[in-house]
Amino acid sequence: MFIAYVVVSSLLSLALLFSGFTKVTGQQAIVDQLVGLGVARRFVPVLGGLLVAGAAGLIVGSWVEYLGVAAAACLVLYFVGGVVTHLRAGDAKGAMPTVVLTVASAAALVLRVLSF
According to the model, what pLDDT value does residue 50 have? Predict the structure, then answer.
């Protein structure tokens, strides 16, 4: 299970770093999309920072078991919040990438717990 965790968490971390970078740097298209969903502009860099921290937690979690569990669990909560935000804004189709990331985070969580 550990190898599966490393693969899933590595791929997920790449996606998180990319998404976090776009938010932290304030790329206009991303900021506009989030503001359109009802997210306050001042929270966009914070959300990006959380994604970068989650990616780091998943990677370091390969060596520190409980950090990997905590990072994956927090990412599941983060993305569930993202799905709720999309659905409340009436953007069910736009929520699909967030649903995929939620499932990937849940998979990382389960794989890390099973690899103890």
Answer: 98
